[in-house]
């Protein structure tokens, strides 16, 4: 018998019981490599651009959040990040947040967006499919989660050619090699996240 875990981070948390506990085998989550239709991706970008009250000719940078709305995913840091970037960027930074509200955080996140005066820059899109089309529409994916078991969305984004910035926590450190296939920032550190995103934007 064996115990299957989706990452080393999960494997380390499995208690060993008995004199001869079964070995733990790490089998990462599978990831789809299907490429979305270009026309669908372009339609999503145009839709977001319109929601942000931008003209067709306006340049903008689109950052994606692809995760359930949960406290450990740190959505509030994400909102602070987008607000901070818009203060220094020479062009608009727009963000879409896709994921189910599993902990009733949507109202609090919406309130933070309004208080940050980001109502025309950050959009809560709920759960969307196919996810590949939405990811491909983004210029960057940011994952500030402090406790992802694996970080599947990071691999999905990279497979689509979308750069990633993630918190150096949980399974992220098994997926991202800093400055090799993405950038890592200290979990909860707004300044480090801002520096990493600015590096990619520039």
In whole angstroms, the N-to-C terminal distance is: 51 Å
By secondary-structure content and strand pairing, the structural class works out as alpha/beta
SS element count, helices: 8
By DSSP, the count of extended strands is: 8
Strand order of the largest sheet: 5-4-3-6-7-8
Estimate the helix proportion, in percent: 25-40%
Average predicted local confidence, pLDDT? 91
Low-confidence stretches: none
User: In sequence order, what are the helices and strands, one letter per element?
Assistant: EHEHEHEHEHEHEHEH
* Gross morphology: globular
| Portion in strands | 15-25%
Main beta-sheet annotation: 6 strands, parallel
Task: From the alpha carbons, calculate the radius of gyration and give it in angstroms.
Answer: 18 Å
Describe, in short, the structure shown.
This protein has 202 residues and is of the alpha/beta class.
Question: What does this 3D model show about the protein?
Answer:
Strand 3, helix 3 (75-88) and strand 4 form a beta-alpha-beta unit. The chain has helices at 8-11, 38-51, 75-88, 106-115, 131-136, 152-159, 172-175, 190-201, and strands spanning 3-5, 24-26, 61-66, 93-98, 122-126, 140-143, 164-167, 183-185. Helix 3 (75-88) crosses helix 8 (190-201). 36% of the residues lie in helices and 17% in strands. It has a six-stranded parallel β-sheet with strand order 5-4-3-6-7-8, with helices on both faces. It is of the alpha/beta class. It starts with a strand and ends with a helix.
């Amino acid at each position: 018998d064996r115990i299957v875990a989706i990452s080393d981070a999960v494997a380390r948390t499995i208690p060993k019981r008995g004199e001869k506990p079964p070995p733990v085998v790490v089998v990462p989550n599978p990831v789809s490599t299907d490429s979305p239709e270009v026309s669908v991706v372009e339609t999503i970008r145009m839709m977001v651009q319109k929601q942000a009250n931008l003209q067709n000719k306006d340049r903008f940078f689109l950052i994606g959040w692809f995760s359930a709305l949960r406290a450990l995913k740190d959505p509030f840091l994400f909102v602070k990040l987008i607000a901070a970037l818009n203060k220094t960027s020479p062009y608009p930074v727009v963000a879409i947040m896709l994921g189910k509200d599993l902990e009733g955080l949507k109202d609090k996140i919406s309130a933070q967006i309004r208080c940050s005066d980001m109502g025309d820059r950050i959009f809560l899109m709920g759960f969307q499919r196919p996810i590949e089309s939405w990811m491909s529409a983004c210029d960057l994916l940011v994952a500030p989660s402090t406790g992802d078991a694996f970080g599947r969305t990071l691999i999905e984004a990279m497979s689509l050619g979308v750069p990633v910035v993630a918190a150096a926590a949980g399974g992220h450190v098994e997926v991202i090699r800093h400055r090799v296939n993405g950038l890592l920032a200290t979990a909860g550190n707004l300044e480090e996240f801002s520096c990493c995103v600015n590096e990619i934007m520039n």
